[in-house]
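Q: Hi! First time asking for a complex rather than a single chain. Here are the components, and I think there are two in total. Is that enough to go on?
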Amino acid sequence: MLKRDETTRLSGLYAGFILAMALAVPTCSFGKPDIATVPAHPTFEIDVKPLLADHCLLCHGYPATRGAPTSFRLDVYTSPDGLPAAYQEASRFIRSIQNGKMPPSAAWGDGVGPNGKAMLQNWAADGYPD
Amino acid sequence: MAASCIVGQLNYNDLYGGGSGRGSYMMPHRLLVYSTAGLFTATGIYALLAPQPYKKPLKFDTGLVHRIAAIGATAGMLTEVVLGFITARTADSGNGSGLKQKAQIHDVVGWTTFGFMTIAGTAWLF
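A: Yes, that's all I need. Here is the structure of the assembled complex.
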């Protein structure tokens, strides 16, 4: 049988493991890396869609998954089925990304990086071109 | 723990096993695992604070089985907390790369932990 001091040592090891994980895991990054350069005049198909694929389409594709709203989709510029798509929702999703509300783990540092945000700003400034 | 595993399996099937993908079991699974982790921690603290048992020679009995299984369940539970956190963070970042594999490992370790806990509980009863 394990003696009391052995039990205490094992408890200490478990506590140390929890503490190490509690400290280490939040500092790790689980999101996709930021884009390397900021295009001056980005377009949806070439620049924005890949960014959305990295950070948003897991849930906001078509059909929406993981409890995401089904009232819009971000996988296409304009939707053939009449649902508001990336063009119609652009100002709203860009605001959510800039505010750090989306993706949900942006608060943990897994959001869209500074280059990605700057690219979205350029896209908005150009009037959200396809 | 049984409810956490069952709802977790339903969640896995829904998101990765050809289900609707709507995430209907995400919140129930989250609430159940918080409850399970809380109860497990409380039980563990209670066990650690228990009085020192009478000395007896080391032999393979239900006490030893209980202790080995409880250590396995504790290790599994700690692993599950970390794996669950990593899987949820990866999904919440929108990163689908390797997400199914992470969820699979979390699923397998969860059922293994449940197995250890069942053995520990059964040995404790007898």
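A: Chain A touches chain B at residues 1-2, 4, 7-8, 10-11, 14, 17-18, 21, 25, 28, 30-32, 54-59, 63, 65-68, 103-106, 108, 110-111 (CB under 8 Å). Let me know if you'd like any chain examined more closely.
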